[in-house]
Predict the 3D structure of the following.
Amino acid sequence: MTSTTDRTDPLLSVVRAGLRTYDLGRPLTIGMPQSPNHPPYWHSLPRRHGDMVRADGGSAANDFISMGTHVGTHIDALAHVSQDGKLFGGEDAFDAGCGGRYEHLGVHTIEPMLRRGVLLDVPATLGVPRCEGGYEITAADLEQTAQAQGTPVESGDVVLIRSGWGQHFDAADGASYVGKETGVPGIGAEAARWLADRDIHAAGADTIAFECLRAGAGHSSLPAHRVLLVETGIYIIEAMALEELATDSVHEFTLVLVPLPLHGATGSPVRPLAVVRRD
Amino acid sequence: MTSTTDRTDPLLSVVRAGLRTYDLGRPLTIGMPQSPNHPPYWHSLPRRHGDMVRADGGSAANDFISMGTHVGTHIDALAHVSQDGKLFGGEDAFDAGCGGRYEHLGVHTIEPMLRRGVLLDVPATLGVPRCEGGYEITAADLEQTAQAQGTPVESGDVVLIRSGWGQHFDAADGASYVGKETGVPGIGAEAARWLADRDIHAAGADTIAFECLRAGAGHSSLPAHRVLLVETGIYIIEAMALEELATDSVHEFTLVLVPLPLHGATGSPVRPLAVVRRD
Amino acid sequence: MTSTTDRTDPLLSVVRAGLRTYDLGRPLTIGMPQSPNHPPYWHSLPRRHGDMVRADGGSAANDFISMGTHVGTHIDALAHVSQDGKLFGGEDAFDAGCGGRYEHLGVHTIEPMLRRGVLLDVPATLGVPRCEGGYEITAADLEQTAQAQGTPVESGDVVLIRSGWGQHFDAADGASYVGKETGVPGIGAEAARWLADRDIHAAGADTIAFECLRAGAGHSSLPAHRVLLVETGIYIIEAMALEELATDSVHEFTLVLVPLPLHGATGSPVRPLAVVRRD
Amino acid sequence: MTSTTDRTDPLLSVVRAGLRTYDLGRPLTIGMPQSPNHPPYWHSLPRRHGDMVRADGGSAANDFISMGTHVGTHIDALAHVSQDGKLFGGEDAFDAGCGGRYEHLGVHTIEPMLRRGVLLDVPATLGVPRCEGGYEITAADLEQTAQAQGTPVESGDVVLIRSGWGQHFDAADGASYVGKETGVPGIGAEAARWLADRDIHAAGADTIAFECLRAGAGHSSLPAHRVLLVETGIYIIEAMALEELATDSVHEFTLVLVPLPLHGATGSPVRPLAVVRRD
């Protein structure tokens, strides 16, 4: 009864043996915390059941959505950031956007990811529940965490840096997650270079800005974005939900991430998964 | 240097051995063919590089998107369709939408899928390049195709029904894909019941409406939606890109599909993948 | 050379003699202060000049806008508020919205206004630069102001109540205008009844909520909306720019207000004018 | 009882004597005919009555709108069109849009209009119910019409050119109004120069493109836009409802038009009025 093929495709065999999936994407809800630089997520139902019922008793409801692509859990395309007028690879940033879309480095050019993922649980290493606002996570923090966990960072990996700041995401006061007054923990240029030196594919964090933000300083400077997106072509994933992975001490996994192919856009909402075999 | 874990997690081992990924999602572009019942996809760049350059020479571009959730390649949540005032499981459809979102059967309740996927290549069975507009794909067509391919449909599968109509998606005239005048091929209630009887998890097609639409009849009746979404709780995926799978005769695979967790919405844009080991 | 007609149309004669126009509408800008209950105003240019230049050297730029209708200076349709399940005139509020639009009391049913307008400059009467947050403007305040100004309120008028709170609109901190922590000055049920008793056509204010909001209480209760919109069918105009009128002591004028005919909507952005002859 | 002021303000006296108002704006409805180059009008109710009822029995409904600014009845700002890289007055068109908005020539710079308006009823002159698709209205047509009506065009006027094509606006098939296959009647460069020579303030028409469009040619060239917007700084109003004015032979009136102050946008939806005294 079982087909020949599925006996031989090893991926399908593993899938059938049972997987455990961690959902690393935040639900998209009206009013969720975000940077004010981007159009917020908004949702409405133009048609609800009962609005228009067909003669046969059937009815359909539908949606109307408006949003930026850098709200909620999302991935930054290489087109998102430029430095001194250049995008990754040296393309002129100004010319690249002519026509209203980024043809070469837009989010539609990001291949779906099924890759080794590594969680670097920095607060576990530091012995704190979460990093403080404004704390700059260093290369030494990352190195020490990878060693302590026994999960060295390898070429092609997707590296997720947990600061613990994601604990604020669901706070009644959305402002605490954005952290304008407190600052937000994250890496700076130094740790970004450490990641780039390891030739990773993408880096993620549990904060909205990915970077270390000093209290009150806002986004005046984004050195980690520059190092990763512009200088080395490494994608950035933001506002990830990493608490559950940390609680379960899952530090290595298959990272599944499929950006929407929004033609020419600078980012995409995503719902990344960390997948391991079911115990 | 390799950690203990990745030697033992079988999924990661398979990922590292190399996978081939088929992209079953259509690019989201302004003006792509769609049903006029839904808000179209629209994209713009509120900020382009050069609009606001920071003192350190950095610049960021971003996006503004508006869309329905039943445009482009997308998945229907169970909340999308009701019959005689009831949703799947008997919930009152009118009450369910009160508050402007579907809490119990909205698209945020669809678990990410990593499952066996089966492509039923109906035109291959029928010996035609594609089914005609208005052709109703029958249970016998599906049965015969599954047998000919050696890929029986099993419980929990995601079944993708290729009609070949996806060849029209990129036509200069978007109207041919929508097929208002010609009709569109697809299954009706009879084949939907055949699928439901096999206890599948989701069904997909390469058309915008999934159903067989008669020429000129429009969406006056949607029996397959009723059977799958309302009566049996099986998700529907529409506007899939299935030609490449068919060309390569890939009839069985791991289907990866991760809906966006749009809280309370009736559907979500998706970019499904068919994944097999790399030869 | 002058036509016969324009000699005889008295309106045109007055127009030609010269008018002074006060702009009572706030500019619509991204990030302007608003209630978080509504989708914010957002604007982007999908096409800028240079994106697509025709062979003849011509180029067009265009816009993409998303917004609620109760942001910026706007008018509330009678469909906006219900009490005990009823809209103005007793229509069932629930049934009225079926179909996703308010057919009978939506903003498209508001006739364009060219009417007598009266500014009631309450702070001038009270001898303060502006009313305090949370101050409830009373019927006595309105009565006294109308008398002091020599501008009795008459049937059919549009009455604009200046609290002075509009001075906060352009504050760097948008939060001061919204006034969540300080409260906002405005009328309550008592003064609303005074207005209703005078059979006015519409009432406006220089605040976002029109009502007196107590510090920290938010929109838990909106008695003036109930009295005006639900009980007596009087339109409400919010977030008006009234400072210039007050500075010039223009208390009586022709009010010009033309809502957009947004079919079935509960409100519309407007740019009301106060017009008098040029001195 | 009447205040001193209103006895002396002549505008208010005329208003009180009674006015007749013609509504020249089309209702904004989902699916109305438009050019596919612009984001369509879409409306939804995020909150309907009953969704959230306060303890005191009150409830509010609200809206969510998305649209371009060149759909429905609208006005073109001078920033809308450029020629050879220049906007009106010689401003560099490319630089002008830097920052995502047109500061100097955006629609927020258009002053509200209360001006003499003239309807030029071209089909009445030609003795036809409406001009044919693709018919180019000439300067001679305009001259002859103005003379026949006894309404010479004067400096500062708003001139509305009726082609009769507005009769198609409400056709079941929206395509007939857009007229891609039939062409659309309108003026060309020659008649535009005739208007510009008369130093008018704005020109309007009952078509979506204002221009004469040849059958099948689309918007490949827009000479009247170039003459009016770029060369002479005259605003253009499109998709006006002019049939009722023509039926009543109202050829001269006060034109009231108040664009929304959409900061930096290239156009705005409007609801223009033609106002005369009540007979």
User: Anything to note?
Assistant: The longest strand of chain C covers residues 113-121. The interface with chain A takes residues 31, 36, 39-40, 42, 45-48, 50-52, 66, 98-100 of chain C (CB under 8 Å). DSSP finds nine helices and 15 strands in chain C. Residues 1-6 of chain C have pLDDT under 50 and may be disordered.
